[in-house]
Amino acid sequence: MSLPDRTMNGSRGAQASPPPQGIYVPVPTFFAGEGTASYDPVTPPLDTKTQSEHSLFLVRGGIKGLVILGSSGEAIFLRNKERNELISSQRKTLDENGYKDRPIIAGTATQQIDDTVEMIKESKDAGAEYAMVLGPGYFAPSTSQQGIQKWFEAVADRSVLPVMIYHYPGVTNNLHIAPATFEKLAAHPNIVGTKLSHGMIDDQTLIAASPRIDHDHFYVFTGLGQNLLPVLTIGGVAAIDGLAGIFPRIVVRLFRLYNDSAAKGTTKEDIKAMRDLQFRICEGEKIVAKWAVIGIKEALARMWGMGSKTGGRLPLAGGFEGGDEEWKKWEKTFQGLKELEEQFKAEGKEG
């Protein structure tokens, strides 16, 4: 697998390639925790050492690439200098440890086109191969589908990286990008896919299975691991998933089981195994659905000793409310998932 030429730009004349199919993780951004010399309770500095430890944990577990500075990465709380430091440090970590083939997708969450384009350029310079661009949701109630289309086309025309559309109504004032709009945007040579972070399976089907989209050029990723199996069956290629940041082998196993069984002929035993895995994933995803990045960090700290349970920036600093009492609600499920993750690691089939 080769990554895209980092010298390409968003010309209408050249068709970009989508990222390799596989499970990606919207990684959390790790900050220095309490007790460290550089700790600041308002703006704790980046903890790139833990960030690199986590990145290697993921790719060794079969994760295809990293989404840095998405919603789970608390991107809106980072200065541009920190964004670039985060991307460059993880590109270096991957390259130096034999993972040059694992792409970095850099998120943007700005409203202004020129700022978005500039952020993408800086991300490319820092080592990213793709840009995942969040829709402009400030004026969502007044924004037309034509306006959304032209906004993304303007970004893609100017972008030095291939663009993925990040559709997450929960953080964009309920901005809705209609399937018909996706059909138009998918024809742009520098728009190569989407992350759909919503549970509207009808809209996901109308995009992932649309005969009016070239699905060799435009990939559909679900942003919800709890939807992975259904989305694969309707034409989606994989997931960009939060729980995979805690238990990578489990989510990768479902993805591979689906593709392997489809290639050889799916049996009833395959279907049962996939359903069982999807059930286990759905159980774990409840903490992501309720607590988002706070829950991801809590679980990483408790399950694997990575980072700090309270290692966010305000207003997310402090971890989830209830502390140990809240964790007791999740402990049995997550201990079971950890045991399954370790079982898959011992089998040596991922990574």
| Broad shape | globular
Q: What's the level 1 CATH class? A: Alpha Beta
Overall mean pLDDT stands at 93
Q: Which spans have pLDDT < 50 for at least 5 consecutive residues?
A: 5-9
CATH architecture call: Alpha-Beta Barrel
At the fourth CATH level, what is the homologous superfamily? Aldolase class I
Residue share in β-strands? 5-15%
Q: How helical, in percent, are the residues?
A: 40-55%
Please count the helical segments: 10
- Our measurement of the CA-to-CA distance between the termini, rounded to an integer number of angstroms, reads 15 Å
Radius of gyration: 19 Å
How many extended strands?
8
Structural class: alpha/beta
Describe the structure.
With 351 residues, the chain is of the alpha/beta class. It has a single domain, classed as TIM Barrel (Alpha-Beta Barrel). Helices cover 45% and strands 10% of the residues. The chain has an eight-stranded parallel β-sheet with strand order 1-2-3-4-5-6-7-8. Strand 6 (191-196), helix 6 (201-208) and strand 7 form a beta-alpha-beta unit. Helix 3 (113-126) packs parallel to helix 4 (145-158). The longest helix is centred in the last third of the chain and has 37 residues, at 268-304. The relative contact order is 0.14.
